Amino acid sequence: MSLRRTPRSAVLGLTVGALAAGGLVTVAAPALAAPADARITEIHYDNGGADTGEAIEVTAPSTADLTGLSLVLYNGTGGVRYATLPVVADGDGIAVVSYAGIQNGAPDGVALVGPDGAVIEFLSYEGTLTAVGGPADGRTSTDIGVAEAGSEAAGLSLQRTPGTDDWTGPLAATFGAVNTPTDPDPEPEPGPGCDVATVTIGSVQGPGAASPLAGEVVTVGGTVVADLQSGGLGGFHVQDAGDGLPATSDGVFVYDTDAPAVELGDQVVVSGTVAEFNGLTEITDVTVSVCGSGPLPEAAPLSLPATDEQREVLEGMLVTPAQTLTVTEVYDLNRYGEILLAEGGRLLAPTEAAEPGAAAQAVQAENAARSLTLDDGRSTNLSTAGEAPPFLTLEDPVRVGDTASFDQPVVLSYSFGAWRLQPADGTAEGTTFPATNPRPAAPPAVGGDLTIGDFNVLNYFVDFPSEFGDRARGAANAAELAQQQAKIVTAITALDADVLTLHEIENSAVLTPETPYRAVETLLAAIEAEDGHDWDYVRAREDTDVITNAIVYRTDRVTAVGGPAVPTDAELAAFANARTPIAQTFDADGEVFTIIANHLKSKGSGTGENADAGDGQGASNPDRVEQATVLVDFAARVAAAAGDPDVLLTGDFNAYRYEDPIDVVVAAGYTDMGPVLAPDQYSYVFDGGSGSLDHVFASGSMVPKLTGLGVWDINAVESFAYEYDGYEPLFAPYPYRASDHNPTLVGLATVAPDVPATATISDPRPFRGERITVTGTGFAPGERVTASLPSRVRGQLGSATADAEGRVSVRFTVPVALPPGDQEVRLTGTSGETASTGFALRTALQELRDLLLRLFRG
């Protein structure tokens, strides 16, 4: 049923009668009606682009006094209230409360409260919620059953049918006027006929992004190439035979939720007004004639990379991707059925691939040109509607790195700021995903006789929002916690680490100070019950955040040496908006080393000098740089106190490979072991780009003892649908999507093998001034190795970093001033490992003779 605005004077009597029929007022009573007779009758909270005109309407019989009523807004995340708004009476029984901060989450709600504090009604949209605090405390909301998708034009709202609890919309907003019902099944407008003159769709589209005919009424004809009338998109794509102009598209979207049903292949004539909606050219307010049916036109090849201008000429048309497309993000798959695809393999985060600034911006532009979104033909928020996300089953996921196979036609469309492929039949059935990046059954092998893991446990909280509001960031209740814990324990048990650094675990010292380690103790008890080992934890705590770092370890594998180390008060100031580092020294059969767990400030917020500089590093980069600087100084102090230089820095640095905080740590003598031992493995996916926010840094003395590193690819590449609070039918207590970060595992050799390094020279009898190469083997992966001539006071020739196999090459120029005879070339690693080789030089006369002979012989 739809509603239309009706002049108040014409419907006053009708309205009062309707309200009476609904049980809201007794018509026979001339006295002032009670405020409890009021109801919420209209809501607007979301539209395409910047939200405008957000408001809530309260309606009562015209004699009702609305004085003292209020609206209390509740957030579905935790069920807490976020605003209380007075209802200002205007004397005619209708009050409109405007508020720009009405939230559009999943779900959110509003309680209408009387002057006595009693709740008159508690409504919500996009699902139900239970209120925490405020007048509706403990109540469960009533879902009004309709929602705003956020894609609609401004000026619409959700509206209550007078005298009922039925809601409809989005419809044209009628704030301040009484909602009145109209015919729910009106007769459609007659079509334009099949013999009328039409213009080409190319002339409607024009050669640019916007139509030259915007605002004009046109008539076009063509074939229905995509039927998207259901699922919230409210229209279909029409494509004609073309105008022969390569700069114009031959397809267009027809938007009208009241248009007659059409099918793929229908030949139609459409009359309506040309409009631009969020970057998409469309025809609206249409009349449609179906004039027959026929085959679909041949799909045009869509080649990537492509600019916006190159895509514009195919807007609205049937297309087929010209290259293999790889899944590069599944973030919105659970909510909107969207998958980001890319040509040339998965995308990398710009600063994972290049230095911040112009180089990273170039990667960002390239990523945009290489990618586009695959949609499912719906605009529905699947997670709030309780609908199954497309493409997924419990054991057959779609993972970043998989490839797409298009078995049915698709059209190229544009909405929500992105180019997207929409299925021609409006369903997701026509695309499959061969598992080119299958789920790994076990963690990667890393060698060594001791393993160290790093795991972000995604807001593992044992306390709930019902008691702590939005300070409790994890599971909503005990049932959700049980599911979350089951996945985390399965993953940690399979990781089989001897020492484990944890991040985003509840800081019970803040929430429940009387039991400051309750969260980590609860998790360890579950792990011990699963793997049968004895675990302990480092007793260090902080008060800067409700989440914290933790270090846990198997007591049969390592022994904690002394107590934990924490930063000084002066150092702590740098971590006021982050998590405090926690350090602990361990002894494993005589091998002493220190682990420091870290979680630096996130990229999501910052003002002033911490505002996003646009160089690819996100917000708060200066704070992360300061935190990294303090961290390496803290680590040096801890290592000195331990009497051993072996240090590992692990955790979420919230910085990709080439960002400034990483440079700070590397400049202090640490090696980022991921690029050395696992160069194509990544811990995180964000905005379509893969990269590692999580790092393992090793001190120079520690590098030779690391036998391997692996990123277990179980979380970041999987859909949120598989999380403990994702789509319930897809839950399983397996490790996949136990978190949003992939865990990392490192192998440590507590007894280093005695394999001497070796060195060879590319030319044992070079000429002076010639470029030659010395190559070494047997160095530690990631070790910095310097080549030198011991016979010279300033004999350094150059340096390089050993690769994952311990191989290193240094190319240098033979000094012209060297005397004849044998010359030693020595390779020296930062660990102290050395290897030597050499070359022999001729006398000046011999060299001249041999050089002339070389030239003569060609």
- Helicity range: 10-25%
Q: Compute the CA-based radius of gyration.
A: 33 Å
CATH architecture of the largest domain: 4-Layer Sandwich
From the helix content, strand content and strand pairing, which structural class follows? Answer: alpha+beta
Oligomer: single chain
* Main β-sheet, spatial strand arrangement: 18-19-25-26-23-21-20
Count of beta strands: 48
Number of domains: 4
CATH-defined topology of the largest domain: Deoxyribonuclease I, Chain A
Low-confidence stretches: 1-32
Shape: globular
CATH class of the largest domain: Alpha Beta
**What does the main sheet amount to?**
7 strands, mixed
Number of helices: 16
Kindly, what is the distance between the CA atoms of the first and last residues, rounded to a whole number of angstroms? 92 Å
Mean pLDDT: 90
Strand content: 25-35%
The CATH superfamily of the largest domain is identified as Endonuclease/exonuclease/phosphatase
List keywords for this structure.
single chain; alpha+beta; OB fold (Dihydrolipoamide Acetyltransferase, E2P); Deoxyribonuclease I, Chain A; 6-stranded mixed β-sheet; 16% helix; globular; disordered N terminus
Please outline the helices and strands.
Blueprint: E1 3-5, H1 8-21, E2 39-44, E3 55-59, E4 70-75, E5 81-86, E6 94-98, E7 108-113, E8 119-125, E9 142-143, E10 156-160, E11 167-172, E12 179-181, H2 201-205, E13 217-228, E14 235-239, E15 251-255, E16 266-277, E17 280-293, E18 300-302, H3 308-312, E19 318-321, E20 325-329, H4 333-336, E21 339-343, E22 347-348, H5 350-353, H6 358-370, E23 371-374, H7 382-385, E24 405-406, E25 410-415, E26 418-423, E27 431-432, E28 450-460, H8 465-468, H9 478-495, E29 499-506, H10 508-511, H11 518-531, E30 535-537, E31 547-554, E32 559-565, H12 569-572, E33 579-588, E34 591-599, H13 621-642, E35 647-652, H14 660-667, E36 671-672, H15 673-677, E37 684-686, E38 689-691, E39 694-698, E40 706-711, E41 744-748, E42 758-761, E43 771-777, E44 784-788, E45 796-801, E46 808-813, E47 821-829, E48 834-841, H16 844-856
Parallel strand pairs: 8-9, 15-17, 18-19, 22-38, 23-26, 28-29, 34-35
Antiparallel strand pairs: 1-12, 2-3, 2-10, 3-6, 4-5, 4-7, 7-8, 10-11, 13-14, 13-16, 14-15, 16-17, 19-25, 20-21, 21-23, 24-27, 25-26, 28-41, 29-31, 30-31, 32-33, 33-34, 35-39, 36-39, 37-38, 40-41, 42-43, 43-46, 44-45, 44-47, 47-48
Helix pairs in contact: 9-11, 13-14
